[in-house]
Amino acid sequence: MRIHYDWRLARVVDSDGEVFDELNWSPKRSVRALADRLSDLQSGRMSPEARTLSKRFPDAEVNGMAAMSDLDWPELEAEEQEMLSEAAAILAKRGVADAAADLDRRLDMLSSAAIELRSSWTTSEARCIEWAGLFLSEADLDGQRREIPAAVAEAESIDAAAAALDVATPAHQPEQAEWVALNGHAVGVVALAERLGVAEAATRELARQYVPTLSMLVGPLGASRLVVLAGGRERLARMPSGSLQVLGARGAMAAHRRGAPSPKHSPVLFSLPQVSRSPRWVRGKIARYMAGKCSIAVRVDHFDGEPWGEERIAEINQECENIRERFPKPPRR
Amino acid sequence: MARKPVKLAWGVRREGRSLWTRNAVRGVSVRGERRKTDSRIEWRAWDPTRSKVAAALLRTNGDPSRLLPETGSTCLYLGASFGSTVSHIHDQVCGSQNHHGGQVVAVEIAPRAMRDLSELSCHRPGLVPVLGDARQPQTIAPYIRSQADWMHQDLSIADQAKTFVRMAGAFLRPGGTGLLSLKAASERLSDGDDDSRFAKAAKILQESDLEVIERINLKGLEEQHVVFFVRKTIHSG
Fold first, then answer.
1. Is the complex ipTM higher than 0.85?
2. Best residue in A38, A85, A94 for a mutation probing chain B (most B CBs within 10 Å)
3. pTM of the entire predicted model
4. What's the CATH number where A123 sits?
């Protein structure tokens, strides 16, 4: 005895194909109701008719796929086919709209925007400093670095910029058009810095909500990068920690496949002071230890565990310290 | 260089090295492809460097029309992406306003691609967009009207062959045509070089109830890709 069903009807069929019982979906069908019904069926639930029949025939085996291969299964009528297409279109639209509820996608956009802003800011800022420095030969490009873009952006002329920075006026003046370009570039750098700050602050806030434990361990920006690189929090949580350790080290992994030694850590883990400020020969060990802890942290976050406290983080940092002390000297070759 | 068009099916023809399908929506290109009108029928160019099905039609050793679905049939397309290939299949299977009464179920997991696909389906009756995981039969079963006469799978996942066997088992009718596009780079690295990866996939297909009719290498149109052309065996009795 088996129960076959689709969205229209459910049937109890025996092994010879004889129909014992049949229930149809009510004649008052609507496209909206069908869309809800399809989405239930898609997630593996039975249709209400199939449920009723399985109560009537508790021994029957329920098979949602069997209508496919059942030769006696009624074909879709033109009207039903029309309805199915409309419902499918509604569901597709609904699915597209629901993508915005996915925090993985939101974090991806936010974190990627912040990363791209940072990379364009570094390029533009360096150009702005060099450009202004070319004219303002007296300016201290290291000490006054932070002030230069703002000073150039707000000045009316290169002389005014020199005055604002408290340095001698330049020996050679830029052309008017050249100055306008330099000034505009500096305005852009200042605006870019502001946008970068906003984007990073928003990323931090979202990461602290979404992956609180991992954020405490590797910082909210690092945590969001790990999640984005893995393609979502769930995938990061299910990832072996050996993969997490090299997540983002694409070039090094490609070289590794061609025979180079394996990478010790990804750029994300390297950005941690525990790793980058340690001597070369313990970085791999600390990265491996931290990757293990990151794996546990993201699992705590994803599978609704108790978020770690400051104490736990301090213990982990202490352990990094211990590893470093255990290997004070580079290994002998 | 004008060549005489060769008719491959109702809505598909070949002119020299280019393929054309009978445009189901007059005056509209899906992805900016060329259109031309020939005795009041509008044809839309089917770019073989962008569509693996089109590439397979040009590269097959046998009769290319064997690879195509019949007009008015039920088709399943797994991994529909933004829908450019799907639109050409729809041209052939459904025609304008679905006057052939065909059904093309297009499954795609990415909402970004689904956005374009659902827009496409608004103008093309008979095309059913499904947002969901193409590896799970239950996400597709509610939408498809009967067993499929033709199916194509093009997913960027490892172990495509296994998935294909499972999905063909569930959805393809006995005697139905299946196409599996396989990309070497998507398969597991541990399986050796490209050839051995393809060979492994071929073995998986042969051990199922699918008969591999041809392994079509798309070299020159799509590097490191092959299309397996299979037919589901009809069990006697």
1. yes
2. A85
3. 0.85
4. 1.10.287
